[in-house]
Amino acid sequence: MDDNDIKRVSRLTAILTLLQTKRVVTSSTLARKFGVSVRTIYRDIKALEQAGVPIIAEERKGYTLMEGYRIPPVMFTENEANALITLEQLVQKNNDSSLSKEYTGAVSKIKAVLGYAANDKTDLLSKRIAVSPLVANTGTTSSLALIQNALTDFKVLKISYKSESEGKLTNRHVEPFALYYNLQETWTLIAYCRLRNDYRMFRLDRIQQIEQLALPFQPHKLTLKEFLEAKEKNFGIPDIPLS
């Protein structure tokens, strides 16, 4: 196998991975990404189809994979695995226990697909990385994973929230919009509050109870960038909770 064949196999694998992570990808986008002609991309797509990959060509849109089709796990490079394992130590200090748990599970799966030699190296690396004990391990919240799911599934959350200013507990139905990590090193939920009929920011460590409802909501047209810019314009910084 010469260098051109190796490059093509690598490109075909990368195209297949990209198709699995994107809803629709155009031939021109693929051509720019891999530095080849659109005609070459056409040949690559045809080769993948001949290999049995169910690629659907949507007219005037691009290429997509048949719904439900999945390729086996892609092998991580040693450097990619090392980067994630290095971050694991920092994630363990994060103040949301659900995030720490899910990240640890993800790293375990990454180690499972590494070769023996690479696995030995990552095990060594994980034992040679430490975070100063002076960095607090607060672990004050456990709802980040639940909120992430509600945000991406467009499901209403029912929360009991203790406001910072008044210390008053209120029950709210909110539409999760975004997550924001603020200067106090705490996660904040940006959501449309049906009680206030406006967007509000809720510190996760002040949410006393939380429940995802089966009630759906329409995706928000506002972008996170627009929200943060408006907040900064009115209050100087976007970190002030408005709940």
Question: How do the helices and strands line up, and which of them pair or pack?
Answer:
Blueprint: H1 3-21, H2 27-34, H3 38-50, E1 55-58, E2 62-65, H4 78-91, H5 97-112, H6 116-127, H7 144-153, E3 155-162, E4 169-181, E5 187-193, E6 198-203, E7 207-216, H8 224-235
Antiparallel strand pairs: 1-2, 3-4, 3-7, 4-5, 5-6
Key terms for this structure?
243 residues, alpha+beta, Arc Repressor Mutant, subunit A, SH3 type barrels, 3 domains, 5-stranded antiparallel beta sheet, two-stranded antiparallel sheet, 7 strands
Overview of this structure, please?
The chain is of the alpha+beta class. The protein folds into three domains: 3-65, Winged helix-like DNA-binding domain superfamily/Winged helix DNA-binding domain (Arc Repressor Mutant, subunit A, Orthogonal Bundle); 78-127; 144-235, SH3 type barrels, CATH 2.30.30. Helices cover 43% and strands 21% of the residues. The protein is built from eight helices and seven strands, in the order H-H-H-E-E-H-H-H-H-E-E-E-E-E-H. The protein has helices at residues 3-21, 27-34, 38-50, 78-91, 97-112, 116-127, 144-153, 224-235, and strands at residues 55-58, 62-65, 155-162, 169-181, 187-193, 198-203, 207-216. The strands form two sheets. It has a five-stranded antiparallel β-sheet. The N and C termini lie far apart (62 Å).
